[in-house]
């Protein structure tokens, strides 16, 4: 049986009052989400939150919640959605206190239910940026990242599991936001700068106020 993970009570009032734009960033592992988010942060001053990084930081912190998460993450499975949402909420509140102008929620939602829960508890996403890359390219990039990242999940077996999890769980997320007219599908096979050009063209349409 999967271990249970403790929850905390979180007051979202300051976040709701700020009402800053939220962008979901989705794409397979290795699609370049982190790379593009770094560039978006530099240009627009948005706050980049990677659910994967928040989970890894929680594990590293040595908290009881982190220990409970370790077993789940090592299996390559998805962590329960409320737990990811708690970590995201906590990080958003800290950023709002520091005057954040908006958020890039990277690697989230992984499932349609996650997106719906996020939007009903926090706020609707303004747009969903989907970095569309062939599986073959994803494997190539992740094996390249493995040489320097030190990430335990950048090895061929875990990469294959993560790709499978992505295809089965995340593809419906793309369809869901497409049907709501919020999806921006970006061909992300090109160079970092070419892809960023497309990102900027899309963000400029909706970020005139930030
Ligand atoms: N457009 C691009 N072309 C080639 N390599 C890229 C690329 N964008 C990112 N990379 C590299 C950087 C990393 O070593 C690896 C994975 O990128 P990443 O930004 O960490 O992806 P993600 O955050 O989606 O998992 O691929
Ligand atoms: Mg990443």
From TrEMBL:
InterPro entries documented for this protein: Adenylat/UMP-CMP_kin, Adenylat_kinase_CS, AK1, AK1/5, P-loop_NTPase
Any GO MF annotation of the entry: nucleoside diphosphate kinase activity
Recorded superkingdom: Eukaryota
Residues annotated for ATP binding in this entry: 30-35, 145, 190
Example of a GO biological process term: nucleoside triphosphate biosynthetic process
Record CDD domains: ADK
Catalysed reaction equations from the record: UDP + ATP = UTP + ADP; AMP + ATP = 2 ADP; dAMP + ATP = dADP + ADP; GTP + UDP = UTP + GDP
NMPbind as annotated region, ranges: 50-79
Keyword line: ATP-binding, Cytoplasm, Kinase, Nucleotide-binding, Transferase
GO CC entries: cytoplasm
Chain sites annotated for binding AMP: 51, 56, 77-79, 107-110, 114, 151, 162
EC number: 2.7.4.3
Annotated segments matching region LID: 144-154
Localization: Cytoplasm
Physiological role: Catalyzes the reversible transfer of the terminal phosphate group between ATP and AMP. Plays an important role in cellular energy homeostasis and in adenine nucleotide metabolism.
Domain comment in the entry: Consists of three domains, a large central CORE domain and two small peripheral domains, NMPbind and LID, which undergo movements during catalysis. The LID domain closes over the site of phosphoryl transfer upon ATP binding. Assembling and dissambling the active center during each catalytic cycle provides an effective means to prevent ATP hydrolysis.
Family: Belongs to the adenylate kinase family. AK1 subfamily.
Binding partners and assembly: Monomer.
Record's protein name: Adenylate kinase isoenzyme 1
Gene name as annotated: Cni-F38B2.4
């Amino acid at each position: 049986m999967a271990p249970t993970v403790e929850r905390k009570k979180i007051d979202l009032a300051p976040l709701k009052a700020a009402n800053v734009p939220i962008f979901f960033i989705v794409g397979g592992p290795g699609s370049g989400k982190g790379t593009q988010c770094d560039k978006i942060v530099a240009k627009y001053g948005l706050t980049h939150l990677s659910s994967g990084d928040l989970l890894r930081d929680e594990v590293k912190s040595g908290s009881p919640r982190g220990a409970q998460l370790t077993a789940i993450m090592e299996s390559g499975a998805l962590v329960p959605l409320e737990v990811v949402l708690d970590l995201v909420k906590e990080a958003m509140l800290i950023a709002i206190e520091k005057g954040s102008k908006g958020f890039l929620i990277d690697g989230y939602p992984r499932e349609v239910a996650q997106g719906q829960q996020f939007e009903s508890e926090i706020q609707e996403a303004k747009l969903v940026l989907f970095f569309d890359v062939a599986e073959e390219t994803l494997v190539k990039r992740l094996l390249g990242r493995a040489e320097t990242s030190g990430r335990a999940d950048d090895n061929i077996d875990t990469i294959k599991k993560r790709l499978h999890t992505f295809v089965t769980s995340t593809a419906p997320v793309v369809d869901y936001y497409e049907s709501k007219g919020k999806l921006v599908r970006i061909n992300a096979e090109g160079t970092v700068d070419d892809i960023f050009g497309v990102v900027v063209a899309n963000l400029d349409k909706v970020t005139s106020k930030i």
